[in-house]
Amino acid sequence: MLKKELKLKRFFDQLSEENKELLLQKGTKKKVSANTILFSEGDQPDYIYLVQSGMVRLSKMTIDGKEFSLHLKQSGELVGEVGLFNMMAISVTATVEKDAELVRFDRVTLE
User: Fold this and answer.
1) Which helix (H) or strand (E) holds 93?
2) What is the mean pLDDT of residues 6-19?
3) 51, 25, 46: which is closest to 108 by C-alpha?
4) pLDDT single digits (tens) 52-101
5) Contact criterion met (CB below 8 Å) for 79 and 62
6) Is residue 8's pLDDT more than 70?
């Protein structure tokens, strides 16, 4: 049986050029240094971020206080989209792992 090669599709890459431009007009570009925390577990969601370059690590704290890495977000991926519109508290911490260029979108503006 032949294995199918799976190609990961990033959110931003799937948009038309027109929609990319429209979306970028609504955001604020930010250069963020490594080790900067974008948001922490328990925060209320106010922003969503589009990674244009660099990396953002999503992690969770275990009951015994150890940090558990869940995912590395890269160029073209969104950070913070889970819970943004249902007003649930954020369940992960997002830390810039490698200097990044991000576009920050305000929840109210996106609505």
Assistant:
1) strand 93-106
2) 72
3) 46
4) 999 999 999 888 888 888 999 998 888 988 766 677 788 899 999 999 99
5) no
6) no
**Burial group, residue 100, by CB count within 10 angstroms (0-12, 13-18, 19+):** buried
Cα-based angle 16, 77, 2 (whole degrees, multiple of 5): 85
Q: For 29-63, b where at least 16 C-beta lie within 10 A, e where not — what string?
A: eeebeeeeebbeeebebebbbbbbebbbbbbeeee
CB neighbours of residue 85 within 10 Å: 12
- Gap between the Cα atoms of 40 and 59, Å rounded: 9
DSSP run (H or E) holding 20 = helix 17-25
pTM of this prediction exceeds 0.70: yes
List the structure tokens of 63: 């009951």
- Please list, in sequence order, all residues whose beta carbon lies within 8 angstroms of the beta carbon of residue 68, skipping any fewer than 6 positions away: 59, 60, 61, 62
pLDDT of residue 9: 64
Give residue 99's identity as a one-letter amino acid code. Answer: D
